[in-house]
Design brief:
The complex is a heterodimer of chains A (112) and B (115). Chain A is mainly β. Helix content of chain A is 0%, strand content 56%. Chain A contains no helices and eleven strands. In chain A, strands 2, 4, 5, 9, 10 and 11 form a six-stranded mixed beta sheet that branches. A five-stranded antiparallel beta sheet of chain A has the order 1-3-8-7-6, with no helix packed on it. The relative contact order of chain A is 0.34. Chain B is mainly β and 115 residues long. In chain B, strands 2, 4, 5, 6, 9, 10 and 11 form a seven-stranded mixed beta sheet that branches. In chain B, strands 1-3-8-7 form a four-stranded antiparallel beta sheet, with no helix packed on it. Chain B is globular and about 40 Å long. The chains are: A mainly beta (112), B mainly beta (115). At the A-B interface, strand 5 and strand 10 of A face strand 5, strand 9 and strand 10 of B.
Amino acid sequence: KQEVTQIPAALSVPEGENLVLNCSFTDSAIYNLQWFRQDPGKGLTSLLLIQSSQREQTSGRLNASLDKSSGRSTLYIAASQPGDSATYLCAVSSGNTGKLIFGQGTTLQVKP
Amino acid sequence: GAVVSQHPSWVICKSGTSVKIECRSLDFQATTMFWYRQFPKQSLMLMATSNEGSKATYEQGVEKDKFLINHASLTLSTLTVTSAHPEDSSFYICSARKGGNSPLHFGNGTRLTVT
């Protein structure tokens, strides 16, 4: 059974810092991996999607990497801003079914 | 971009009553919709997969008679929590996609509080 773990559960950094969020999964036979952002009481915003054949994806200040063999992904946020404060969720899909298995998220606070 | 709308955004109901939550794809036809539940400080857990015109597929441990899912059209899926109890209080989120390799789009969620 696939399990997704995110470390740390919470993170507080000063504005401007670069930071890394970690995601690990137990079954390396994934179809894709996605990173989402969730603001309090809100739905999910997709940030980056990495197909199983890819190693990384970049969007603006965000870079996500994927190492399938070790069951790990990282989300790198450059030059963090207070507006980046949110919960970041990692989710994996084992096939093209659309069904996602989520980690518990990392709640990020960026202090001005 | 593709938009998924959920309604209501929050609802309070009394124990024993039923509540219906709607999930609409506003600008695309969603062959498949998914319903998730999120308890406080926990992650999203998939409840069921809903395909238009067919019965929903429920995940293990989810009571299909308690959480009724209807996907009667390509733009609308509904989740009805029947005989709600306080332990059903949670954040319910739907997602939808056109099909195939299409990306998933999430609604803004519904906060259900059962008193």
